[in-house]
Fold this sequence. Notes:
By secondary structure, the chain is mainly β. It contains no helices and four strands.
Amino acid sequence: xxxxxxxxxxxxxxxxxxxxxxxxxxxxxxxxxxxxxxxxxxxxxxxxxxxxxxxxxxxxxxxxxxxxxxxxxxxxxxxxx
Length: 81
């Protein structure tokens, strides 16, 4: 079994020193979750289950939040010994 979690927060800020104002102008928070599990049925068959999720949340309101999900089952059959 394997699980990877990643969180990244990118933010661009415009600072007006005279007015003491900090305003975010661009940026995004990225959250990534990747899991997988391998199971060997016998010497020739292997089964793998996986689930991947990527979530993007923008820092400003002019962009939309998005998320992508991938999930599946993989079967591997080995011909050679």
